[in-house]
User: Which sequence fits this backbone?
């Protein structure tokens, strides 16, 4: 059903789902060792994910799928923005 809504082959959608689960594990592991480098890595990945979601939304088969993907892209981009703000604050507060 999701593959049809976003007009992607089912194996691609399954692969994306598996990658998201794997990425969640990586983010959890990185959270155990907080650092500016790890924050930059997550920021870059979220920015890339937001761009990918926006691109996939252009092929959505329905308005609902389009709006859902755009909303998630905005959410992920907002999270990346908050990470950029955190990095700036860390740079200012660093001795």
Assistant:
């Amino acid at each position: 059903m999701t593959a049809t809504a976003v007009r992607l082959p089912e194996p691609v959608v399954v692969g994306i789902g598996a990658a998201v689960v794997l990425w969640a594990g990586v983010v959890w592991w990185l959270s155990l060792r907080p650092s500016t480098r790890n924050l930059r890595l997550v920021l870059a990945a979220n920015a890339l994910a937001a761009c990918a979601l926006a691109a996939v939304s252009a092929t959505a088969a329905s308005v609902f799928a389009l709006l859902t993907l755009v909303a998630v892209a905005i959410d992920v981009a907002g999270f990346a923005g908050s990470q950029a703000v955190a990095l700036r604050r860390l740079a200012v507060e660093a001795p």
Summary: The mean pLDDT is 79. Residues 25 and 81 are 21 Å apart (CA to CA).
